[in-house]
Amino acid sequence: xxxxxxxxxxxxxxxxxxxxxxxxxxxxxxxxxxxxxxxxxxxxxxxxxxxxxxxxxxxxxxxxxxxxxxxxxxxxxxxxxxxxxxxxxxxxxxxxxxxxxxxxxxxxxxxxxxxxxxxxxxxxxxxxxxxxxxxxxxxxxxxxxxxxxxxxxxxxxxxxxxxxxxxxxxxxxxxxxxxxxxxxxxxxxxxxxxxxxxxxxxxxxxxxxxxxxxxxxxxxxxxxxxxxxxxxxxxxxxxxxxxxxxxxxxxxxxxxxxxxxxxxxxxxxxxxxxxxxxxxxxxxxxxxxx
Length: 290
Known about the structure:
This protein has eight helices and 14 strands. By secondary structure, the protein is of the alpha+beta class.
């Protein structure tokens, strides 16, 4: 059964479907890392400094830690490295595909995003394929299985909110620079013994998330996100690759309280590959249920 807080409206095309195809497909913690991955950059490079060095005098490619704690300086540097003006203006779509890994279980997925607020996420669950579509404020789901008619559902409530958060096209820092949320503070910190910048962000809907950035590469290395039960979801990024000027993390691991929740491995990625907006639209069979 689905979580009690989620309201769904279903329309069955044909009776007699297997019960497992009619059950809610729950969101798992590690899925939310997918959208975050679209903003990660270059392989993490750790560096070590002696204990008596002061952060203000450490020589870094993009300025000292002290300089980079200034929001204006940091933002200008971050955008220059991670998403130049041409990419901000011209990038309209992103496609990625890969696998979600949880223990010995591997499930293939694909993700398509189209600016400003459309997304299509499909995961192969073996016996069936689940697709989640987001267009504006509308979220829907399709379950497809061999020799069965497609099952559709409108997604509402907190589950819909989780998917709506994923329609964000760029990462939290870039989004903040575009007026979608804001950076509230930047301070020098450390991660696994190496210096980093802790960038505190507040999204447009009021969600507070800290992002640790490597000051040598100016790429995110960890995201720390509070979740409803009071714990912190930690997502680390590695194996970053340059995709036509946009850098994407090809390996992400999410954990809570030190326990790994899932891993995302991206196999392929591309930008501006051409996607029709109608791909994300609410299926006709659900329009009457709105």
